[in-house]
Specification:
268 residues, 9-stranded mixed sheet, alpha/beta, 20% strand, Rossmann fold, 10 helices, globular, 37% helix
């Protein structure tokens, strides 16, 4: 196709914009990621217990509410534990009450409603001890998915950095978006300002190069328990092939491991 024809198609898309492909359920994030395409790799990174899994499960929930099909692959947490996390997150029942506590009637009702809603979503969770690309491809071909989540990608990689390149090929082949969660180097803990940078990614060269978008989670209350919980989570978009880098804020409630949008008050 000639350059002129390609430019004509680009101009047509600008004049007649298509529906946004990626809708995360977070208004500010969606306004940043308007140009994201299927076949993208999006990395969610952070230190342990910073909220990577909670954020991934929140995105999964938001996609399912849009009637999208999702697959969640984990090498660390079982299907039962991940579903329990989703139940707690959606029912807003604190973690400490789930095991052995007596529940009030209204709490039982909230759990039942959350269970019914989650059961209606079109998603699958699988625990994997190893990541076999042929197995994943078979699932992709069978399920016709929109989004795939792969938790703790480093646990699957070992010395096989090529696995990320193959995941990128799968995203292209099956026209979907793959989210991976990634750890950050513990070296950042030695800095005064512990906000992460791209070079804090473990095995950063491969993950950084393959990812179309890298989002990094930072919470000051993780280090300073006296920090005001309002607007306490920074989502740092450190790489964005579809636009600029940016930082926006969410609320994170540790009782439910739940992210929510910041309430904006406007004075006129």
């Amino acid at each position: 196709m000639s350059n002129e024809k390609v430019l004509e198609n680009i101009l047509k898309d600008i004049k007649e914009p298509k529906e946004q492909i990626l809708k995360t359920g977070f208004e500010e994030l969606d306004s940043i990621l308007t140009e994201v395409e299927n076949s993208s790799i999006i990395t969610i990174s952070g230190r342990p217990s910073m909220g990577k899994t909670a954020f991934a499960l929140t995105l999964l929930k938001n996609f399912c509410k849009q009637n999208k099909k999702c697959l969640y692959l984990s090498s660390r947490e079982s299907e039962k534990l991940l579903l329990k996390r989703m139940l707690i997150q959606n029912a807003e029942i604190p973690f400490y009450k789930i095991n052995g506590s007596k529940f009030r009637k209204e709490e039982i009702k909230k759990l039942e409603l959350a269970k019914n809603e989650i059961s209606s979503w079109d998603f699958k969770i699988e625990y994997l001890s190893s990541l076999e690309l042929t197995d994943i491809e078979n699932v992709l071909a069978e399920l016709k998915l929109n989004y795939v989540f792969i938790e703790d990608i480093q646990l699957f990689m070992y010395d096989k950095d090529w696995i990320l390149k193959e995941l990128k090929n799968l995203a292209h082949r099956y026209d979907l978006i793959i989210f991976i969660t990634s750890s950050l180097s513990r070296k950042l803990e030695k800095r005064t300002d512990k906000r992460p940078f791209l070079y804090d990614l473990k095995q950063t060269a491969t993950i950084e190069d393959i990812s179309d978008i890298v989002m990094m989670i930072y919470r000051e209350d993780y280090y300073n328990y006296k920090f005001d919980l309002e607007n306490n989570a920074e989502i740092i978009i450190a790489k964005n092939n579809f636009g600029g880098v940016y930082t926006f804020y969410l609320n994170f409630d540790p009782k439910f491991a739940k992210f929510s949008e910041v309430t904006k008050n406007y004075d006129f």
